[in-house]
Structure formats: C-alpha cells, structure tokens
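Entry 14: structure prediction run for HAD-IA family hydrolase. Input pasted below.
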Amino acid sequence: MRDSCVLLDIGGVLEITPQTGWESRWEERLGWPPGTVHERMRDVWQAGSVGHIGEQEVHEQVAARLGLDAPQVEAFMADLWTEYLGTANEDLIAYVRGLRGRCRLGILSNSFVGARERETAAYGFDALVERIVYSHEIGVGKPDPRAFEAACDALGVPAHRCLFIDDAAANVEAARAAGMQAHLFEDNAGTIARIAAHLGARSR
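Run finished. Output tokens:
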C-alpha cells in the first residue's frame, strides 16, 4: 500500500489550537479598540504565511506598528506562538505514527515563518511523516491548487491516491477539486475510520 498517501493539516488536526484571546489582551493592555492588532498587522501576517518576510522583519514590524519595545515584542510573539502551537493531538499522532511503512505520509500546512523550527522542537513532526510542505516555504497556501500539487510532488504520488485531512471545509473542497480524496476533520474517531477505509480500499 505504499502507493497510497495520507496527507494531513497541522493546526486543528495534529495540533489542538483553540483561540487564546491573546490579541484582545494586548489591545486591552494598550488601550486600543478590538481588532486593532489584526488591522495593523494583517499584511505582515499574510506576508509571513507565504515567506515574503523573515522572522527578524516580523519582529521589526511588530515594534514599529504597535509601538512596542524589545521585551514587549518578545512577549507579544511568545503569545502568538503559544496559540499557534496549541497542544498535541496525541491520539491522532499515535495512530499516524503506526502507519509508517504502510503508506506515504505527509503534511500540508498553511504556516508562518518560524513554524518548522518550533513544531519540530515541540512535536517532532519531521519524524512523524516523510515530507512537510509549509506555505511559508513554498510561497503559496491552501486552498490554492498549487499547494496540493506541491505536496503530491514532494511525496511523489498522484493526487488521486492521496487522502487529505483538514479542518477547513474550503481546503477539503479545494483538495477534491485538485483530484485528491479528502476528509473534513471533526474528531479523531471519524478521521481514523476514514484513513483506515482509504488504506483498505487501496489494498484490494
């Protein structure tokens, strides 16, 4: 079944990432109206998600746009990464780990510059799957069809043999349009059952 592929998202799938309210806390601390941080930083977040700027420039833009000193910038970014990384979805990770050798395994994630280093340190995803395709490294994110093409190319598998798992309906629909099989993540049990069915179908 090594000609089968399972491709997973990270945030909301392999990581449990509830909103922590960190931006609101900073706005309250600084006496700003709700939404100010997002409005001032929106284009920086977008640029970082496709690798158009590096981490140092992100820090510089946070300082300039929000008027924060160096310790405040470090605290602000630490809060960002705490929400971004969330906690490990241990049960799903354990299941995926057990698939090694049975199928091709990969990750396709809309990401932010610095994510690979932090997620490797926190969760070791580089040892969980064969290839990780991050939007900030390929310059394009889901639901752009080029993101799915890049993931298939990285794993050396045709799209129709790949099952893609994501928690965003738009990305699931885009994966199907790109020729993949796809599953909307809602819980571990349903996702594990869908992966098992995909691999079982490929074995017949």
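Notes: The chain has two domains: 5-17+87-203, 22-85. Will compare against the previous run tomorrow.
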